[in-house]
């Protein structure tokens, strides 16, 4: 998903920076005196989240947790919150979303940050299935803030932590700083809001075209809500077994080969959007949409399939916004 754009939003202050291996863009309706402080606080928030949840920083809290697999470990409030969310969504998606697939990711070749992987022409070594994850990969004691990963289990929380960081920052900006209008976009995981009562121009969120990287497939028109995009086409690399990508199917422990190559989900919660976008790419259009319609009635999904079909699934009247300029082949 490309950067969000707001027509007629000249009162917004915008700033950009890089964190969590992605580009962060934030637009806020605030006074000149506040903008530097808000930019500093926003940047610091994403940097703190990255330092805790990165699987590529040996000193991060996540890496320490992974090294303690098999033993009970005390975690921070933020780590506890994200782990509880991850486990909740793992159950809600009936296992399609599974944050405990780090060994499978490494086995497929994703063993360092994607920017560094791009410097290598081809990854060597066999790519074969690893053992499936335990049905109960984690034990959480919220009262004690204690977590125990099953032995030989490792978590990758990058995706859900990023969308959670967006959600938490938006809540702080809206509720604590009382900002009436804004947008936070972390590499396509985004949330927008407008609390003004008078009629305002909406946010226009560009949806990337999966087969034409330099153009958009259309826009999502929204005033309040969230959206996230997941794709099998972006983070890809070559191995001796051919191209690989980062969306691991927990049923095979290999990169998914479903018919869905890209999915954008829109709805009220940024984390749920990210989880369902990823799950639909893994499960595919038939199985994924059956589960999605049953479990996420407040959300909409735009799917692009490998045979270049475009499906739109969700409520007849969108609770978030409307899709514009997108050629839909089938409404589900």
TrEMBL record:
Query: Nucleotide-binding among the record's keywords?
Result: no
Q: Catalysed reaction per UniProt?
A: L-threonyl-[protein] + FAD = FMN-L-threonyl-[protein] + AMP + H(+)
For this UniProt entry, the molecular function terms from Gene Ontology, in alphabetical order, are: metal ion binding; transferase activity
Name the needed cofactors.
Mg(2+)
Lineage: superkingdom = Bacteria
Q: Which UniProt keywords apply?
A: FAD, Flavoprotein, Magnesium, Metal-binding, Transferase
What EC identifiers does the entry list? Answer: 2.7.1.180
Presence of the UniProt keyword Magnesium in the record: yes
- Name of the protein this chain belongs to: FAD:protein FMN transferase
């Amino acid at each position: 998903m490309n950067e969000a754009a707001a027509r007629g939003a000249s009162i917004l202050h915008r700033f950009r920076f890089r964190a969590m291996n992605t580009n962060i863009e934030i637009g806020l309706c605030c006074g000149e005196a506040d903008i530097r402080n808000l930019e500093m606080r926003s940047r610091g928030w994403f940097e703190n989240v990255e330092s805790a949840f990165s699987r590529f920083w040996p000193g991060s809290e996540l890496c320490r947790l992974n090294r303690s697999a098999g033993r009970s470990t005390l975690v921070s409030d933020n780590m506890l919150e994200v782990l509880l969310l991850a486990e909740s969504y793992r159950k809600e998606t009936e296992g399609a979303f599974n944050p405990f697939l780090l060994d499978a990711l490494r086995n497929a070749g994703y063993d360092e940050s994607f920017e560094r992987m791009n410097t290598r022409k081809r990854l060597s070594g066999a790519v074969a299935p690893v053992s499936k994850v335990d049905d109960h990969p984690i034990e959480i004691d919220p009262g004690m803030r204690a977590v125990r990963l099953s032995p030989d289990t490792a978590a990758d929380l990058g995706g859900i932590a990023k969308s959670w960081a967006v959600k938490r920052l938006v809540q702080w900006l809206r509720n604590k700083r009382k900002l009436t209008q804004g947008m936070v976009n972390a590499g396509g995981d985004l949330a927008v809001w407008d609390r003004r009562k008078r009629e305002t121009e909406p946010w226009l969120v560009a949806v990337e075209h999966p087969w034409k990287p330099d153009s958009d497939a259309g826009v999502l028109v929204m005033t309040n809500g969230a959206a996230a995009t997941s794709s099998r086409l972006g983070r890809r690399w070559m191995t001796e077994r051919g191209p690989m990508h980062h969306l691991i199917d927990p049923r095979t422990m290999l990169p998914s080969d479903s018919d869905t190559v890209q999915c954008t989900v829109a709805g009220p919660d940024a984390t749920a959007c990210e989880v369902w976008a990823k799950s639909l790419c893994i499960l595919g259009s038939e199985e994924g949409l059956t589960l999605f319609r049953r479990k996420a009635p407040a959300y909409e999904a735009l799917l692009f399939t490998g045979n270049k079909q475009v499906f739109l699934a969700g409520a007849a009247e969108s609770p978030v916004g409307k899709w514009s300029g997108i050629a839909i082949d089938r409404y589900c």
